[in-house]
Write a structure and sequence with these properties.
The structure is a single chain. With 361 residues, this protein is α/β, with parallel strands linked by helices. The chain has two domains: 48-146, Carboxypeptidase-like, regulatory domain (Immunoglobulin-like); 151-352, no CATH class. The chain has nine helices and 14 strands. The protein has helices spanning 2-29, 143-147, 152-166, 191-202, 205-221, 230-260, 274-283, 299-312, 324-347, and strands at 48-55, 66-71, 84-89, 95-101, 104-111, 118-124, 129-131, 135-136, 170-171, 175-176, 180-181, 266-267, 287-289, 295-297. The strands form five sheets. Strands 1, 4, 7 and 8 form a four-stranded mixed beta sheet that branches. The protein has a four-stranded antiparallel beta sheet with strand order 3-2-5-6, covered by helices on one side. A two-stranded antiparallel sheet has the order 9-10. Strand 9 and strand 10 (175-176) form a beta hairpin. It is elongated, with a radius of gyration of 37 Å.
């Protein structure tokens, strides 16, 4: 009896274990294969963009500032594992923009002629359109500090942006005022840029209007009588007047300044007492700023006037040609006219130039 009972208990145990195994197998088979082995997918990182505006201490926008974006190597293998550097220049409104920027920490380094460099840091999140706070530059004490870290090509790019602004400067919106810089420490011009500015001046419609008007007055008053009257006489006077404009502008504004490394522009002062500004304007008829940023005798203006006067003897009527003495007298008159023009630039014309340089509104 005991043996039979023991055998029955053993059979019951096997049946119970078999049923438990079957239940466990059924429960396990209901779970999807591999569940628990796969981590949830990581959030996908997307490139973003960075925008901003560069101004000076007064809040006026700074044109042509060099903005350099620097990023450390990205931890995300989707993006570059090397440090990234991108450069751009602030536009006419002082604004700059970088597109397709990898998310992560970044640094902006801003440099501009006449200002101390400035660095701004931040972090760009995935897919973010980041607008950095307005970046205010402070005026540099010396030119050397400004040019640290800038290559010759970078300085030329800054000068090119400044020229674009100068070419928009017109007195009363009509009269070209290209040879005036409202940036006290503007980037020096390359020889190519000096010739570009001279070319832009002589092909300006207003130059043709002035020459045409002068030729009409000379015809009416019968100046240079050997040229005669009528259409032919007018054409000769117009040609002589335009030749004067071309030779004077190119020799005094491009050729000699390129050879002597001098800047042909007038640099607006705008600060200090009226007396100091008056003396500054007068002095700028005989001194100028060199490409090295230092003041020096304005050989370009003097030699340009003499050379232009000498060349005019080649095409004016013989009886109206200037001798050597009169050529020097005209050069002296030209220097005086430059001084008067500088006074107008310093005290009057700036207020009448609506599209003057945006660095100094």
């Amino acid at each position: 009896m005991i043996r039979q009972l023991t055998f029955q208990l053993i059979i019951l145990a096997f049946v119970t274990l078999g049923w438990s195994s079957f239940s466990i197998g059924q429960t396990a088979s209901q779970e999807p294969p591999g569940s628990g082995d796969t981590a949830p997918p990581a959030t996908q990182s997307l490139p973003g963009s960075i925008h901003g505006t560069v101004v000076d201490e007064s809040g006026a926008t700074v044109v042509g500032a060099l903005v350099r974006l620097t990023q450390a190597p990205s931890e995300n293998p989707i993006f570059s594992n090397h440090s990234v550097k991108k450069d751009t220049l602030s536009d006419d409104n002082g604004q700059f923009s970088f597109a397709a920027v990898s998310p992560g920490p970044f640094q902006l380094t801003i440099t501009s002629a006449g200002f101390d460099p400035k660095t701004v840091s931040g972090t760009l999140h995935s897919g973010e359109d980041e607008t950095v706070p307005q970046i205010a530059l402070t005026i540099a004490e010396t030119r050397t500090e400004v040019e640290v870290g800038l290559t010759r090509d970078e300085i030329a790019e800054i000068a090119e942006e400044q020229i674009k602004v100068e070419e928009k400067q017109r007195v009363l919106g009509v009269i070209p005022n290209f040879y005036v810089s409202y940036v006290p420490k503007a980037a020096p011009l390359t020889p190519k840029q000096k010739f570009k500015l001279a070319s832009r001046t002589i092909i300006d419609p207003f130059t043709f209007v002035v020459v045409a008007g002068g030729a009409g007055v000379e015809l009416a008053q019968n100046h240079f009588a050997e040229y005669g009257q009528g259409a032919q006489g007018y054409a000769k006077r117009f040609g002589a007047g335009y030749a004067d404009a071309v030779t004077g502008t190119f020799i005094g504004g491009a050729i000699v300044p390129s050879l002597l490394k001098q800047d042909p522009r007038y640099f607006y002062k705008g600060t200090g007492s009226d007396t100091s500004r008056f003396l500054y304007a007068i002095a700028n008829s005989v001194i100028c700023k060199g490409d090295n940023g230092r003041w020096q005798p304005n050989y370009s203006n003097v030699l340009g006037s003499l050379a232009a006067g000498g060349l005019s003897n080649l095409y004016y009527p013989r009886q109206d040609r200037d001798g050597a003495e009169l050529t020097f007298e005209n050069a002296a008159i030209g220097i005086g006219a430059t001084a008067i023009g500088n006074l107008f630039q310093e005290f009057i014309i700036r207020k009448l130039t609506p599209k003057r340089d945006l660095n100094n509104p």
